[in-house]
């Protein structure tokens, strides 16, 4: 059993007959009244995010998890196939278990959280950034860079990312996986 002082990002807990992963939290100590913890919880089964407040000292039933490195293989509808890099076993996960599935590139190494009680995969943690090639975008207009204007660009994984006007087809860009936003252009 854990309590509210053990809350951290990535902690998996049992709550309301489901398993949730804490994606955001804030300890609050108001001037008047008891302390509490505001959290954002993401269901590992449905992908739904809920807000919840726990009072200080509240007991939480934590889920023991292990992390394993998996290589992303290919998509099949809403299902994504991964291979364990140690024993080459393959697993299939629903898109809800992945934070930003549109940014997954074949061959990408990700971390999968696995419940130790029943060996069920819970969620996929992607690297902080991924490098993707731009496959389609409108050409930039010369001299139109005075503002932070952006344009949509389709990357090799099929996702659409807003990029600055100077990015062209064939450019490699670094994308933040948490927000799905452009970070920088990669020089070759």
Topology record:
Layout: E1 2-3, E2 12-15, E3 18-28, E4 36-43, E5 49-55, E6 59-62, E7 65-76, E8 79-84, E9 90-94, E10 109-115, E11 121-125, E12 129-137, E13 150-155, E14 160-164, E15 172-176, E16 181-186
Antiparallel strand pairs: 1-6, 2-3, 2-6, 3-4, 4-5, 7-8, 7-10, 8-9, 10-11, 12-13, 12-15, 13-14, 15-16
Question: How would you describe this protein?
Answer:
About 0% of the residues lie in helices and about 55% in strands. By secondary structure, the chain is an all-beta fold. It has no helices and 16 strands. The mean pLDDT is about 85. The strands form three sheets. The protein has a six-stranded antiparallel beta sheet with strand order 1-6-2-3-4-5, with no helix packed on it. It is flat.
What are the key terms here?
SH3 type barrels; 188 residues; OB fold (Dihydrolipoamide Acetyltransferase, E2P); 5-stranded antiparallel beta sheet; 6-stranded antiparallel beta sheet; mainly beta; 54% strand
Helix content: under 10%
Total number of β-strand segments? Answer: 16
Quickly count the helices: 0
**Would you tell me which CATH topology of the largest domain applies?**
SH3 type barrels
Order of helices and strands: EEEEEEEEEEEEEEEE
The largest beta-sheet arranges its strands as 1-6-2-3-4-5
- Name the structural class: mainly beta
Main pleated sheet: 6 strands, antiparallel
What is the CATH top level name of the largest domain? Mainly Beta
Outline of this structure?
The chain is an all-beta fold and 188 residues long.
């Amino acid at each position: 059993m854990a309590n509210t002082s053990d809350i951290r990002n990535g902690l998996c807990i049992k709550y309301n007959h489901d398993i949730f992963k804490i994606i955001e939290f804030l300890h609050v100590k108001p001037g008047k009244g008891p302390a509490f913890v505001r959290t954002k919880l993401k269901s590992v089964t449905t992908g739904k995010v809920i807000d919840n407040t726990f009072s200080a000292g509240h007991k939480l039933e934590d889920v023991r998890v292990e992390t394993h490195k998996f290589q992303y293989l290919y998509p099949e509808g809403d299902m994504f196939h991964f291979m364990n890099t140690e024993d080459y076993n393959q697993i299939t996960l629903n898109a809800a278990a992945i934070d930003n599935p549109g940014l997954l590139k074949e061959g990408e190494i990700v971390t999968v959280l696995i419940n130790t009680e029943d060996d069920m995969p819970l969620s996929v943690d992607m690297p902080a950034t991924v490098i993707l090639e731009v496959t389609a975008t409108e050409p930039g207009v010369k001299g139109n860079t005075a503002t932070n204007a952006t344009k949509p660009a389709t990357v090799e994984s099929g996702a659409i990312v807003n990029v600055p006007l100077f990015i062209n087809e064939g450019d490699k860009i670094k994308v933040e996986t948490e927000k799905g936003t452009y970070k920088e252009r990669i020089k070759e």
